[in-house]
Automatic annotation (TrEMBL):
CDD domains: FHA, trans_reg_C
Residue ranges annotated for the FHA domain, each copy included: 29-81
Keywords: DNA-binding, Transcription, Transcription regulation
Full protein name: FHA domain-containing protein
Organism: Fictibacillus iocasae
C-alpha cells in the first residue's frame, strides 16, 4: 500500500471522529468556520473557529501548518503558533484550533487506510473504483452521483452540507435559515434571517431535482423542516 500523509480528525464538528483527510504535494488545505462565501477544504461548525483559521501545505515532501491570524489561535503540541509563520509537522503531532475546539493528529508517511475515510473523502483516483450511489464529500463541498460529479450552486451546496452533517436527524426551518442565509440576518438583533418557508421549499425542490434518483433521500417533515435519510454505517445510500 502507498505511504501517504494525512490528518486524522479527533474533534471537529460536523466531521466524525476518526475521519481522515489525505494531504497531497503542492496542495494547500484551507481550514476555517463554515461560510457560504468561502470555498474551504475543511469547513468547521465551531463558533470559536475563525473563517480563515489555518492552513496545511505540502512542499517538497514536507508538511507545514500555519495560523492565519485567527482570533482564538492555533496550537502545535500545546504550543501557540505565531500567526503567519510556517511550522513543519512531524508524525504524531497534534494540531488544535481555538483552545481545543478542534483537534487533528498528523500522520506523516503513514500507510493510509482509505476505508477509514468514512464521510470525509476518497483517495486520488478512487472515483473509478466507487460503487454507484450518492457520495457527499463535505470538506471538498463535492457531490458525486453514480461516478459523476454534480455541480451545485452555493445555496444548494450549503443546504446539502447542513442536512448531511445532521443526517438522519430532523433539521428545523430556522436552522436552515440561519445556515443557508446568514447574510440576511441583518443588524437588527433578530435571531433568525428574514426568509420565508416557501423560499426553503423552492430551494429543496431544486436540490432534489439535481440529486436525480437520490432526491427522495431528502424527507419533508411537515410544519418542522427536513431530514437527509442515509443508511447508518454507509457513506452513501445504495440503490
Amino acid at each position: 500500500m502507498d505511504r501517504k500523509d494525512y490528518l486524522k480528525i479527533e474533534i471537529g464538528d460536523p466531521y466524525e471522529a476518526g475521519s481522515i483527510i489525505p494531504l497531497t504535494e503542492d496542495k494547500t488545505l484551507s481550514i476555517g468556520r463554515v461560510n457560504p462565501r468561502l470555498m474551504l477544504d475543511v469547513a468547521l461548525q465551531s463558533p470559536y473557529v475563525s473563517r480563515n483559521h489555518a492552513e496545511i501545505t505540502t512542499e517538497n515532501r514536507k508538511v507545514y501548518v500555519r495560523d492565519l491570524g485567527s482570533k482564538h489561535g492555533t496550537e502545535l503540541n500545546g504550543a501557540a503558533l505565531t500567526p503567519y509563520l510556517k511550522n513543519e509537522l512531524k508524525d504524531g503531532d497534534r494540531i488544535t484550533l481555538a483552545k481545543g475546539a478542534v483537534c487533528f493528529t498528523f500522520a506523516g508517511g503513514a500507510e493510509a487506510d482509505w476505508d477509514m475515510t468514512m464521510e470525509l473523502s476518497m483517495p486520488a483516483g478512487g472515483l473509478a473504483r466507487m460503487e454507484e450511489g450518492l457520495y457527499i464529500i463535505p470538506e471538498r463541498r463535492q457531490v458525486v452521483i453514480d461516478n459523476h460529479h454534480v455541480i451545485l450552486s452555493g445555496k444548494h451546496t450549503d443546504l446539502l452540507m447542513l442536512l448531511h452533517a445532521r443526517k438522519n436527524q430532523a433539521v428545523s426551518y430556522d436552522e436552515i435559515k440561519i445556515y443557508v442565509w446568514p447574510e440576511r440576518l441583518g443588524h437588527g438583533g433578530q435571531a433568525v434571517p428574514d426568509v420565508g418557508n416557501d423560499e426553503i421549499t423552492a430551494l429543496v425542490y431544486r436540490l432534489r431535482k439535481k440529486l436525480n434518483n437520490y432526491g427522495d433521500k431528502i424527507i419533508s417533515l411537515p410544519r418542522y423542516g427536513y431530514m437527509l435519510e442515509l443508511e447508518e454505517g454507509k457513506r452513501s445510500p445504495q440503490t
